[in-house]
Write a structure and sequence with these properties.
This protein is an alpha+beta fold. The chain is 28% helix and 27% strand. The chain has a five-stranded antiparallel sheet with strand order 14-13-12-15-16, sandwiched between helices. A four-stranded parallel sheet has the order 2-1-6-7, with helices on one face. Helix 1 (19-29) packs across helix 8. It comes from Anabaena azotica FACHB-119.
Length: 327
């Protein structure tokens, strides 16, 4: 089936639900035609064809009995890109090459959509994903940030531990596959560091880590920015045990999200921060300290927000749809 109306391409994966469904529903209500592309289904279930000649080039894509060409796509929502799911029948020696070629083919497809409106542009997402750059720019726009050390030197980590009076957490600069996680989640989620953890810190020589002072919490905030609109959910720090430093960790019962209003000054800094990255969308994490200070932790340019829409009835999907359809 060919789609004739203005198409908005929703880039995600087959396990995605709720958020992508809400955005698709909002687009339909506004008269646009969503087309969901599950990246993990390419190349086995998604057919993509690119045509090039001296006069023009175009791509067509077929999935779930629907077909579109790049010329129909007016906007793109970049939600997630996942690795291909390749069948067991494919010999392991060919798997890496097939994944590499599939990724390169998709990169060409994204390039063919350069004239569409993106939320957000892949280059800007990549630029904004660097957590050290995030801290630098957050500081430049006036946000408070945690004292931070990034090192592959064990002695530097031990000295920092003393400097922050033993109140220290560790985290990674990049996302890591769950399949790589060790027996503990120490290396995957933001985790409290104890003195005994640093006894074998010589392993840092293989992989640098981020260490930060542990910020005292009154509330943890998830702030979702959509094209100038700001949506906030708050969790009281006493909702979960003090040892559970990261509410995103599986099994942490975080309790109910609450509404929260950011001060105007924080919103102005947030707008300046997003403008520096040229992003229309971002999910940001802050801590509100007992003394009333807002401390910036990080931004995920493709971060989660479904729990805020679900629990607090915040119209985030509608704001994303409006941004995708804006002139």
């Amino acid at each position: 089936m060919h789609l004739s109306r203005d198409v908005v391409l929703l880039i995600s994966h087959s396990g995605d639900f709720f958020t992508i469904d809400r955005v698709a529903e909002a687009l339909l209500k506004k008269g646009a035609q969503p087309f969901r592309l599950d990246t993990d289904k390419f190349p086995l279930e998604v057919q993509l064809t690119a045509h090039f000649d001296k006069n023009k080039s175009y791509h067509t894509i077929e999935y779930n009995n629907q077909s579109i060409s790049t010329e129909q796509v007016q906007a793109v929502w970049m939600r997630r890109i996942w690795e291909p799911q390749l069948g067991e029948e494919l010999a392991p020696k060919f798997r890496e090459a097939c994944i590499k070629e599939s990724r390169a083919t998709l990169d060409g497809f994204w390039d063919s959509l350069k004239d569409a409106r993106w939320v957000d542009n892949l280059e800007r997402i990549d630029y904004a994903s660097n957590k050290l750059r995030q801290l630098r720019i957050a500081s430049e726009v006036g946000f408070a940030i945690p004292q931070t050390l990034v090192t592959n030197k064990a002695e530097a980590a031990r000295e920092f531990f003393v400097q922050v009076n033993g109140k220290m957490v560790s985290k990674l600069l990049t996302a890591i596959s769950r399949s790589m996680q060790a027996n503990s989640s120490f290396f995957v989620y933001t985790s409290t560091v104890k003195e005994e953890d640093l006894q074998d810190a010589e392993s840092l020589r293989y992989c640098p880590m981020v260490f930060q002072e542990l910020i005292p919490k009154q509330q943890e905030l998830r702030v979702v920015y959509v094209n100038g609109n700001v949506f906030v959910g708050a969790l009281n720090a006493d909702v979960y045990a003090a040892a559970k430093v990261d509410w995103r960790k599986p099994g942490v019962d975080v309790g109910a999200w609450q509404h929260h209003q950011l001060p105007d000054e924080v919103i102005r800094r947030l707008q300046a921060f997003m403008a520096k990255f040229g992003l229309s969308f971002g999910s940001l994490d802050f801590i509100l300290t007992p003394s009333g200070e807002y401390v910036f932790l990080e931004i995920n340019p493709v971060g989660e927000w479904g729990m805020l829409e679900k629990d607090l009835d915040l119209p985030i999907a509608n704001a994303i749809a409006d941004t995708l359809l804006a002139e």
